[in-house]
Amino acid sequence: MTSTTVETTAQLQCKQKGGPLEIVHVPKPTLAPGEVLIRQRVIALNLIDMKQRDMGIMIARWPHVLGIEGAGVIEAVGSDVRDLQHGDEVAAWEGLGSVSWGGAFQELVVVPAPFVAKKPKNISLEEAASLPICFFTAITAIVKNLKIPLPFLQGTSTEGQVPSSVLVLGGSSGTGAAAIQLLRKAYPSLPILATSSVKHHARVNDLGATYVFDYKSPSSVADIKSASPGAAGVDVIIDCVSAGASQTDITDVLDPTGSKKYAAIVTGAPVPVPEGVKKFDVSGASFVDMQGGMQLVPSLTKLIEEGTYRVPLPVRIVGHGLGELPNVLDQVKTASGEKLVVTL
Predict the structure, then answer these.
(1) Sequence-distant (≥ 6) Cβ neighbours of residue 137 within 8 angstroms
(2) Which of the residues in the chain have pLDDT under 70?
């Protein structure tokens, strides 16, 4: 009688809504023809990880492997994969919600090849892990929802209209920092206004914002409107941090004769807008449905390497190993102007 040894790998499973999170050993995954197998080296933490644990957002069944982005080394590729190979260092969008693949909180992650980017040569693997989510989410808001073309992104839609001005709420967030860079690259003279903590103003300016305002200031609405072109108000708003959920008068900065568009990144907090304001709920995962969406991943590598796009936030390592993730995950609630990662 012969015995067969099944090769296993570790994953951190969230057993049910609210937790707990436990390390479980499961059989090593197999690949479909268009997938790659990544051995995780870095897991990037996002606020949605915590909210999925606590609220079950976009989770169809339990247990569930949390985590939506990371970086590592390719261990194997499917038979149809051509541009990636064993040993490549990569970053990836590693799952969200009820997709059958992915989940960053594990040693080995199966990801469709179009969601995997080679690590840019001029940054660290930790920095690379921080790139995918904010990049795709910002592009989705700008191009898909607001219909603002970004012509330098090959294959994406060129239809739409350039706004007269843009306000980015949460300019020092990952998505905010990405949006400012992308808009500035496309439109060198576009007035880009942003909010952030005072300590991050210099960095947000450096990324391309024309003016930056303290989001805590009681006069922020008046200050923003005063600084807008002709003091008439801004044309569109990109809310990266659900600022409008608590600052309900922020839409007063909109130009009443402008497009009055409000793109709100979905964070789990509802953002009300008054009648007459066109609101878009933005999910980064919908980039896959965009014209040219599947070409965005390789463009990210190129933009970083040529210096056109920078790592949006400084990266800080807060732990090592799957077992440390439950202890550090809640730190994303208070992180400001930095990206938290865990190494494996």
Answers:
(1) 175, 178, 265, 282, 283, 284, 287
(2) 1-4, 97-100
